[in-house]
Amino acid sequence: MTWYLLGAGNIGTLVASYLARAGQPVRRVGRGPAPLQRNLLWPDGRHQALTLAGDDGGLIQRLVITTKAQDTADALRPLLPRLANGALLLRLQNGLGSLDALPLPEGLQQVEGLTTSGAWRDGAQVQVVAENDTLLGLAQGDPEPPADIAALLPHWPGARWCTDIRRQQWLKLSVNAVINPITALNDCPNGALCDDPARQQQARALADEADALFHRLDPDWPGDTYGRALAVARATAANMSSMRADVRAGQRTEIAYINGWLLRQADQLGMSLPAHRLMVAALPA
Q1: pLDDT of residue 76
Q2: In what order do the strands lie in the sheet with 125-130?
Q3: Residues 10-62: pLDDT tens digits?
C-alpha cells in the first residue's frame, strides 16, 4: 500500500528514504504527476539516489505530513476528499494544533512524531547531518504501534514507539516557545540566550508562564522549562532556530503553533500569558 508524502523538504525526504528501505512505495502528494529526484548523503559517505513518484490522484490511506505547521491547512485542505475513513496519518512537525481546524475523516489514526535528526538541502542534494532519536506515538498512549508503523520502525534509525508522546511533545514545545521567538526577534544564534541578561530575563518570563500553564494541564508536569531551555541553547549554541531562519527569509513562522498554541490553551483555562502574547504579536504567523 502506498504512502503519500506531503512536504518533500529535508525531513520529508529523509522519512521517504526510510520508507523506501522498508520496501514501501512513496508518492509526493499535491504537486502534480511529475516525479521528484533527490540524492541523500550521510556523514559516513553513504549515498542514496531517491525517486519520489508523482501524485496519482488516488485514495489516500497512509499519509506523512512534514510541511511546516503554518502551511499545513492550505496544503492539506484540497486533499481531504481523498482521505479514506480509517486512514493512517503520521505528522512530523514542530508545534501543535496544525490539524485542529480541519474536518478530518472518521476513524483517522493520527500518529505524532518528534525527531531530533537533522538535514539540509542544496538543490536536489540532501545532506544528512545526524540521525538522532525519533519518537512516534498516538495521543491515547497506545502500548503497541499500528501495523504499518511497526513494519517501518526497523528501517528507521533511532526510531521507537512512545506511549507518552503527548508529554514528550509538551516538553519539546515548552523549550521551543522560549528559544525560537527570542532568537528570531533578536536575530541571534541559540547560544546567545545564555550570555545576555536581557535575553535571560525574557527566557525566564516565557518559561515561567509555560510551566504555570502545563501545571494546570498536567499536575505531574516536571517544570524547570527555564533550565531545560538554557541547556538546549548551550548544546546548540551555534545553531539557527527555525523561527529565526523563517524571519530572515521573510516567511511566516510557526509562532501560532508554538507560543500561539499555549495562548489557546490558556484562554480555555482563563489564564493570561502576557510574555507569550507579546511574542505572538511581534512575529509573522
Answers
A1: 97
A2: 47-52, 36-41, 125-130, 118-122
A3: 999 999 999 999 999 999 999 899 999 999 999 999 999 999 999 999 999 99
Domain count, the chain: 2
Residues 16, 149, single domain; the answer is yes
> In the annotation, is 172 catalytic?
yes
Cell numbers at residue 282, please? 511581534
Q: Greater confidence, 121 or 252? A: 252
pLDDT band at 90 (very low <50, low <70, confident <90, very high): very high
- Predicted pLDDT at 174: 98
Of the residues 62, 172, 199, 276, only one is catalytic, namely 172
Length of the chain: 285
Q: Which helix (H) or strand (E) holds 76?
A: helix 72-76
pLDDT given at position 4 = 98
Q: How far apart, in whole angstroms, are the C-alpha atoms of residue 189 and residue 134?
A: 24
Q: Which of 162, 193, 222 is the last residue of a domain?
A: 162
pLDDT of 123 higher than 90: no
* Contact (Cβ atoms closer than 8 angstroms) between residue 29 and residue 5: yes
- The per-residue b/e assignment along 50-86, b for 16 or more CB within 10 angstroms, e otherwise, is bebbebeeeebbbbbbbbbbbbbeebbeebeebbeee
Q: Are residues 84 and 215 in the same domain?
A: no
Q: Cα separation of 173 and 192, whole Å?
A: 19
pLDDT of residue 1: 84
Residues 196 and 265 in one domain: yes
- Same domain? For 9 and 113 the reply is yes
Residue given cell 523549550 in the structure block: 175
CB-based contact 255:243 (threshold 8 Å): yes
Residue 172: which pLDDT band, with cuts at 50, 70 and 90?
very high
Domain that holds residue 234: 167-282
Phi, psi angles (nearest 5°) of residue 64: -105, 130
- Distance from C-alpha of 109 to C-alpha of 91, rounded to nearest angstrom: 11
